[in-house]
Design brief:
Distance between the termini of chain B: 66 Å
Radius of gyration of chain A: 18 Å
CATH superfamily of chain A: P-loop containing nucleotide triphosphate hydrolases
Order of helices and strands of chain A: HEEEHEEHEHHHHEHEHEEHH
CATH topology of the largest domain in chain B: MetI-like fold
Number of helices of chain B: 19
Strand content of chain B: under 5%
CATH topology of chain A: Rossmann fold
Number of strands of chain B: 3
Structural class of chain B: mainly alpha
Structural class of chain A: alpha/beta
Largest sheet of chain A: 6 strands, mixed
CATH architecture of the largest domain in chain B: Orthogonal Bundle
Strand order of the largest sheet of chain B: 2-1-3
Strand content of chain A: 25-35%
Number of domains of chain B: 2
CATH class of chain A: Alpha Beta
CATH architecture of chain A: 3-Layer(aba) Sandwich
Distance between the termini of chain A: 40 Å
Order of helices and strands of chain B: HEHHHHHEHHHEHHHHHHHHHH
Number of domains of chain A: 1
Helix content of chain B: 55-70%
Oligomer: heterodimer
Shape of chain A: globular
């Protein structure tokens, strides 16, 4: 049944976010050089590349998390639905409600499971009353495939869950604000293989509702979950295209060298 | 290929017998451990000596010797008009009450059949504190209906008699003392046998105001405790919000540039500025320029606030820094504003550290005397400061300064009271430290 729906699903070709000529400097360090990427709607896009290649930096440009780094300077143009997200009139707070983020290390708030998920909707005023909020929490936890495990202990501390559960809680927290794009910065690097498989499955399900951008060190993971893959190297976007294409028939020798394990 | 030649057999070593090198290493480890242990021992010894000295000298300050005699409050003397109007009764001075008390004392001795020997009535009266008539007058003015009755009046014994019953004064020392004679001590012994004199717990040490040089037995810490409490209120109300706001700004919001570096260094330096310098600053600023009254708890509180702020800011910044950055990222990631991230997530996590820092800062402020000397809190204050808010501007004393001024006084009875005041101060400090620990535990449990 699930597979049926997967094949039925239309893969849109419309770009949700477009980046043109993005450059990032950290002080004097030129971390990202002239990156052009289109993030397609309802698609999983993977960013791969060796450590320090700029993939996380670029990810953090997409929801302006780089604003919190004092020395970071971003130039170029990133649009979301045709609107420049670096426009001075844009409030990064509103942007981040639309572009959710899941971090490398699970970082639940030291509060209850319920409060972790309810926090985003609360501060954005997405619910009018407690019943609505309860519903948001429940659907978010269900989307993150965590509901069945925690429904009887919503008041228990989120930090008391296992690593994989914590990461899914963080995904539920990000999903709760109904984002249009979900950014994931190596979401499985701190998880064991079983938890990783759960999260990967989850990513594939989330694709039905919004774009997912995932940074990963694991090429197998990129191949498993993504439809589009971008390969970064030394701050350059080397190659970007269909995941199958990148892994089977890369056009750039550096991509080939990386996926065959010769550089990285 | 030939097999590699066996390495020359190592010198035979036994695992049971440690070699010289290991022995040396172990010995140096033992030496270091011993050194640390003796350092801790020296510290503990110093603490024990301090505590035994303070407790040995000071505990007796909480007990006082009373001479209880029946006093007939003669209406003809105390209230000539006969209408029990306190305003009119105030015209009778302590001198009038003094005569009454003296007569009552002599009568009591006669009644008990105690011979006064060669002592003149004045010498007999010298057994009583000079404060006694004033206390009787206060009691009568507070309750005019006592006039005409005979009441059992507990009068403070003079500090020499008090000292005699506490073992501080002996017959040998009385020989050389202009204030007391062995004959008076004999009389005191006879009175104690007859049950007129007794030594018991003195609440007045905590509730009465300071008394003059000549009446150590009547001196108490009431004004000092109240003054210190008022100052702590001022310090808490001012330094906690200012300190926390400054720390949040510097740690979370301020750009990191040369100016904030300069501010940071200066705050660290301010924490090391000798407290008396703050006293000079307060004298110049609050009293000379702003014209605030001297000896006022408000001014004292302001000085101590200035002094405590760097401590609180440093502690608060340290605990803000200790909050993992991933929490900030998480909050910003779901679209919290910077303010929301700080107040909803960072500050609650930093709270135990902030509270501990604040209470330790307050404890330091409570024990500080030098800056208070300069703003006049060393003055002799007998009147209690009023209720807040006026009380913050009334003259008051402070606990550590009270210790200082009592140690300055000539009468040896004040040594005992200064030690007693130190005990009270230490009790407050320990209570505050305990509170800091309890609060920290409490907040930490809320994961």
């Amino acid at each position: 049944m699930n597979d049926m729906r997967l094949t039925e699903r239309v893969v849109t070709e419309t770009a949700k976010m477009t980046a043109r000529g993005v450059q990032v400097h950290y002080g004097t360090n030129h971390a990202l050089k002239d990156v052009d990427v289109d993030i397609l709607d309802k698609t999983v896009t993977a960013f791969i590349g060796p450590s320090g290649c700029g993939k996380s930096t670029f990810l953090r440009c997409l929801n302006r998390m780089n604003d919190t780094v004092a020395s970071a300077r971003v130039t170029g143009r990133i649009e979301m639905d045709g609107q420049d997200i670096y426009d001075p009139r844009v409030d990064p707070v509103q942007l981040r409600a639309k572009v959710g983020m899941v971090f490398q290390k699970p970082n639940p708030f030291p509060k209850s499971i319920y409060d972790n998920v309810a926090y985003g909707p609360k501060i954005h005023g997405l619910s009018r009353n407690k019943a609505e909020l309860d519903e948001i929490v429940e659907t978010s936890l269900k989307k993150a495939a965590l509901w069945n495990e925690v429904k009887d202990r919503l008041t228990a501390p989120g930090t008391g869950l296992s690593g994989g559960q914590q990461q899914r809680l963080c995904i539920a927290r990000a999903v709760a604000t109904s984002p249009e794009v979900l950014l994931m910065d190596e979401p499985c690097s701190a998880l064991d293989p079983i938890a990783t498989a759960q999260v990967e499955e989850l990513i594939d399900e989330l694709r039905a509702q919004f774009s997912v951008v995932i940074v990963t060190h694991s090429m197998q993971q990129a191949a498993r979950v993504s439809q589009r893959t971008a390969f970064f190297h030394l701050g350059h976007l080397v190659e970007y295209g269909e995941t199958g294409h990148i892994f089977t028939n890369p056009s750039d020798p550096r991509t080939e060298a990386y996926i065959t394990g010769r550089i990285g | 290929m030939t097999a590699p030649a066996m390495a020359a057999p190592a010198k035979a070593t036994s695992l049971i017998e440690p070699d010289a090198r290991t022995r040396r290493r172990n010995a140096s480890e033992r030496r270091f451990r011993l050194l640390g242990l003796s350092a801790v021992g020296v510290g503990l010894l110093a603490l024990v000596i301090l505590l035994t000295s303070v407790l040995g000298n000071g505990l007796s300050a909480f007990r006082q010797t009373w001479i209880t005699i029946p006093v007939t409050l003669d209406a003809a003397v105390l209230d000539k008009q006969g209408n029990r109007n306190p305003d009119e009764m105030k015209k009778v001075t302590t001198l009038g009450y003094g005569k009454l008390v003296q007569q009552a004392l002599l009568d009591a001795l006669v009644e008990k059949g105690i011979s006064t020997g060669d002592l003149t009535p004045k010498e007999v009266m010298a057994l009583l504190s000079k404060e006694a008539p004033a206390d009787l007058r206060d009691a009568v003015l507070a309750d005019p209906s006592l006039v005409g009755q005979t009441i059992a009046f507990p009068a403070f014994a003079t500090s020499r008699i008090d000292g005699y019953f506490k073992g501080r004064v002996t017959r040998e020392s009385a020989e050389r003392d202009a204030n007391i004679s062995p004959a008076q001590l004999d009389l005191a012994d006879r009175m104690a046998e007859a049950g007129l004199i007794e030594t018991r717990f003195n609440m007045g040490f905590l509730t009465r105001p300071d008394a003059s040089e000549l009446r150590p037995e009547a001196a108490g810490l009431g004004v000092a405790i109240l003054g210190s409490a008022y100052m702590m209120i001022v310090v808490l109300v001012l330094s906690l919000p200012i300190g926390v706001a400054a720390s949040i700004y510097l740690e979370e919001l301020a750009p990191k540039n040369r100016w904030t570096d300069l501010i940071e260094i200066n705050i660290a330096n301010l924490a090391a500025v000798p407290s008396i310098v703050y006293g000079i600053l307060a004298l110049a600023l609050f009293i000379n320029i702003l014209g605030l009254p001297q000896s006022a708890p408000l001014v004292g509180g302001l000085v101590l606030t200035l002094m405590t702020l760097p401590t609180i800011i440093i502690a608060t910044r340290a605990s803000l820094k200790a909050v993992p950055p991933s929490i900030r990222d998480a909050a910003l990631g779901v679209g919290a504003s910077k303010m929301q991230a700080i107040f909803h997530h960072v500050l609650p996590l930093a709270m135990p550290g902030i509270l501990t820092g604040t209470i330790l800062g307050l404890a330091r402020a409570l024990g500080e005397s030098a800056p208070l000397l300069l703003i006049g809190m060393v003055a002799f204050v007998r009147d209690f400061p009023g209720a807040p808010p006026q009380g913050f501007l009334d003259p008051a004393a402070a606990l550590p300064v009270q210790v200082y001024s009592w140690t300055q006084r000539a009468d040896p009875a004040f040594v005992e009271r200064a030690s007693g005041a130190i005990i009270v101060l230490l009790a407050f400090l320990m209570a505050m430290n305990a509170l800091a620990i309890i609060l920290r535990r409490r907040f930490e449990r809320r994961w």
